[in-house]
């Protein structure tokens, strides 16, 4: 039946992948020997995998039709190999087995393996005669350091033309190598390598590694530092975007220093009670995003007039002990800040009285585009049902300004009223004296007694 035939065909293919024998593709294979050189296309003929072929010292394998290639079996059939080439094998995904310590292979070349992402270190780790590996123009993304340090006589490794992953788990171990380190010095085209994955695509790998090294050496303990992106300025210089994560570390203060080019600092879930050390620290001047959620901050008056407050991008103060903020300072900074994107102020015990709420509500409504958690900005819990846990941005002002005691005139307004009354009195006296002089010609009393 057709369905049964399909299933049998799939099972056969799966078994072939699992078996990974050199004889799996002998029927369509074409092998040509020229002296001590053997070139096989599409597999191996039976004559080359039956018995041991001591006369072959150079082997080229092209267009291997399977996803797996067993190098352990290869060594058994061709023990005198000095050079191995595996080229244009677009289906090959993995190697099985390993070359033993008695392997005489001195050079391995792999080109055009467009499905191969990584070569397991154990494949070549036991080879004591391996001097050169040419792994250019494949699809390699990852490589462990052990691959380059297994052979004691390995001199040259070529890696350009691959799709290298420069992040953790890729080639980032190169970052901590000294400039003249043994492993790095074996990569003859190290300065030609380019990062491929989205975050660093097209950036020189050695420059990204230098940035990663600096970041790791300057990352404050006990925080974690991650390079989240890399951009280029108009002059072509690489600018990293680094996140320092110090969340839930029981910190009572922010780190004294940060790696260069840090853009994001996460300090959520600590015991920090002041932001003074942050806004006054020169290491924080270029910080764009600051997360201080769930700490013990009760006041942010230090933000007023600080340079950082007029340039930041994200500020999150959720879940602290804020009862009020300097509204005028926030309004002034928000107006001057062209970078501002998000501000979070929710889940704080805001003081809801007639002195603070009208100005605070005005700020929230004016900048509701950037204050992203309006529904969580509520009055503190109290016995007053008009204000307890009420959303401040939508609360009627009559809820806090309805009592006479709450409508008391502030001192500054009293001064303004007195000054206004004096101005009106002086203006009225001037008009009266002018009219009296015009009708009677009599000078005001003050003018008549002055010398």
How does this structure look, described?
This protein has 451 residues and is of the alpha/beta class. Helix content is 25%, strand content 15%. It has eleven helices and 15 strands. A hairpin with a 5-residue loop joins β10 (224-232) and β11. It starts with a helix and ends with a helix.
In short:
With 451 residues, the chain is α/β, with parallel strands linked by helices. It has 11 helices and 15 strands.
Coarse structural class: alpha/beta
Low-pLDDT segments: 1-17, 404-408
**Average pLDDT reading:** 88
Number of strands: 15
Task: Please outline the major beta sheet.
Answer: 7 strands, mixed
How does the overall form come out from the CA principal axes?
Answer: elongated
Radius of gyration based on Cα positions: 38 Å
Portion in helices:
10-25%
Tell me the β content: 15-25%
Q: How do the helices and strands follow one another from N- to C-terminus?
A: HEEHEEHEEEEHEHHEEEHEEHEHHH
For the largest beta sheet, what order do the strands appear in spatially?
Answer: 1-2-3-5-7-8-9
Report the span from N to C terminus.
130 Å
Keywords for this structure?
451 residues; alpha/beta; six-stranded mixed β-sheet; 15% strand; elongated; disordered N terminus
SSE blueprint:
Blueprint: H1 2-19, E1 30-34, E2 37-41, H2 46-49, E3 58-62, E4 68-70, H3 71-77, E5 83-87, E6 94-96, E7 107-111, E8 132-134, H4 146-149, E9 156-158, H5 182-186, H6 205-218, E10 224-232, E11 238-245, E12 262-266, H7 276-279, E13 289-291, E14 314-316, H8 327-336, E15 342-344, H9 357-366, H10 411-440, H11 445-449
Parallel strand pairs: 2-3, 3-5, 4-6, 5-7, 7-8, 8-9, 11-12, 12-13, 13-14, 14-15
Antiparallel strand pairs: 1-2, 10-11
């Amino acid at each position: 039946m057709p369905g049964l035939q399909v299933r049998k065909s799939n099972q056969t293919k799966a078994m072939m992948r699992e078996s990974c024998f050199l004889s799996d593709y002998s029927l369509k294979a074409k092998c040509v020997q020229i002296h001590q050189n053997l070139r096989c296309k599409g597999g191996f003929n039976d004559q080359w995998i039956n018995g041991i072929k001591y006369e072959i010292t150079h082997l080229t394998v092209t267009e291997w039709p399977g996803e797996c290639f067993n190098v352990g079996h290869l060594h058994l059939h061709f023990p005198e190999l000095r050079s191995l080439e595996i080229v244009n094998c677009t289906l090959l995904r993995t190697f099985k087995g390993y070359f033993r310590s008695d392997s005489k292979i001195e050079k391995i070349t792999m080109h055009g393996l467009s499905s191969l992402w990584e070569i397991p270190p154990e494949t070549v780790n036991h080879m004591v005669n391996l001097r050169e590996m040419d792994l250019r123009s494949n699809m390699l993304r990852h490589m462990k350091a052990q691959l380059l340090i297994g052979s004691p006589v390995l001199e040259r490794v070529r890696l350009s033309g691959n799709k290298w992953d420069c992040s953790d788990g890729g080639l980032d171990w190169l970052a901590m190598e000294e400039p003249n380190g043994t492993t790095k010095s074996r990569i003859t085209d190290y300065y030609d390598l380019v990062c491929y994955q989205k975050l660093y695509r097209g950036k020189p790998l050695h420059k990204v590694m230098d940035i990663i090294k600096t970041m790791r050496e300057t990352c404050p303990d006990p925080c974690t530092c991650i390079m989240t992106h890399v951009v280029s300025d108009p002059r072509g210089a690489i600018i990293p975007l680094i996140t320092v994560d110090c969340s839930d570390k029981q910190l009572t203060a922010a780190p004294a220093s940060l790696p260069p080019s840090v853009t994001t600092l996460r300090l959520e879930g600590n015991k920090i009670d002041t932001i003074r050390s942050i806004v006054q620290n020169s290491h924080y001047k270029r910080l764009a995003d600051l997360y201080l959620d769930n700490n013990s901050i009760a006041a942010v008056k230090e933000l007023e007039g600080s340079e950082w407050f007029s340039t930041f991008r994200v500020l999150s103060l959720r879940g602290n002990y804020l009862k009020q903020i300097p509204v005028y300072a926030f309004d002034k900074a928000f107006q001057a800040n062209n970078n501002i994107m998000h501000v979070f102020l929710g889940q704080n015990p805001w003081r809801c009285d007639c002195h603070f709420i009208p100005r605070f509500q005005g700020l929230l409504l004016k900048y509701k585009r950037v204050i992203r958690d309006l529904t969580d900005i509520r009055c503190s819990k109290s016995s007053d049902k008009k204000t307890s846990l009420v959303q401040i941005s939508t609360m009627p002002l009559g809820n806090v300004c309805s009592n006479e005691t709450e409508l008391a005139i502030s001192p500054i307004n009293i001064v303004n009223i007195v000054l206004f009354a004096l101005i009106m009195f002086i203006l009225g006296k001037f008009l009266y004296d002018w009219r009296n002089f015009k009708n009677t010609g009599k000078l005001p009393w003050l003018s008549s007694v002055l010398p």
